[in-house]
Specification:
alpha/beta, TIM Barrel, five-stranded parallel β-sheet, 8 strands, binds zinc ion
């Protein structure tokens, strides 16, 4: 079996009505999905969800399973009085302690707000990739994602990873501004493909219902899209609850993909991004 790296998971209590996952609970779900390593994202913005899961807690949990769990750090750009917060020293300390990326960016500001740009600037200096959740409020952007294109252009040292509804609906050239989980065939020429093709520092994760839906709404388009963008896509689940349904793994297994594409999306791209061995055996495949 091709080993998998999951670039998008969560630990801890995030929702009032759910206890969330313990490290051991997450690992038992990952075992069943063939996932050998997983990125655990911190949650430090008030928009998602009912509670915070701070970076320090994520680092402590990941330290219990250093061969399996990889911590990412986060900080909300709105700390302190406007213009007074410098995220660099905070993030530098996290990076020195072993955090391999910034995420999840869940900040309820425009995606290219000046406060957000200070975070991207720090991530550029520290060479931290940034996971961007993009919806109607968090990291908000105009149709066609012009703000995303500006930051991708302005910070070429940062690998940005697109995720969530308002990113993935742009897989189609026809976008309903009210629709978050569009159905039906993808119209070729969407902005997601255009931006992925144009910018080497933009990638996308296939996690959550948004990632799955962008592919499953049009399986024929999905197979061709995965082949074309195989170096830009990352396997991910967005696991955060013990009973959460995960469809992406079985869906990808059912698609007629080349072995090279399967390996790239399941683990090679993530290994490259995270500085892990790009080798199935070393990952325990
Ligand atoms: Zn997430």
């Amino acid at each position: 079996m091709v080993p998998r790296i999951d670039t998008h998971t969560h630990l801890g209590r995030l929702r009032r009505d759910d206890p969330g996952l313990t490290p051991e609970g997450l690992l038992s779900r990952l075992d069943r999905l063939g996932v050998r390593r997983a990125v655990v994202l911190a949650v430090e913005s008030p928009e998602e969800l009912d509670y915070y899961v701070p970076t320090t807690q994520v680092m402590d949990w990941c330290a219990r399973h250093p061969g399996r769990l990889i911590p990412f750090c986060a900080c909300d750009p709105r700390h302190r009085y406007p213009g007074r917060f410098d995220p660099y020293p905070v993030l530098a300390e996290y990076a020195a302690a072993g955090c391999r990326g910034f995420g999840e960016n869940l900040c309820g500001l425009p995606i290219d707000d000046p406060m957000q740009r200070r975070v991207y600037e720090a991530c550029a200096r520290l060479r931290l990739p940034v996971v961007l959740h993009i919806d109607r409020w968090i990291n908000r952007d105009a149709p066609g994602l012009p703000g995303l294109e500006r930051i991708v252009k302005d910070y070429p040292e940062v690998t940005f990873i697109g995720h969530a509804q308002c990113f993935w609906r742009e897989i189609s050239a026809e976008v309903d501004p009210e629709g978050l989980y569009p159905t039906g065939p993808v119209v070729p020429g969407g902005r997601v493909e255009e931006l992925l093709s144009r910018y080497p520092n933009l990638m996308a994760d296939l996690s959550a219902h948004s990632g799955y839906n962008a592919l499953a709404r049009d399986p024929e388009h999905a197979a061709a899209f995965l082949e074309r963008q195989r170096h830009k896509l990352l396997f991910g689940t967005d696991l955060l609850a013990a009973d959460q349904r995960i469809d992406i793994a079985a869906f990808l297994d059912g698609l007629p993909l080349s072995a090279a594409t399967r390996e790239a999306v399941y683990f090679r791209n993530a290994a490259r991004l995270l500085g892990l061995p790009d080798d199935a055996r070393a990952l325990g495949g």
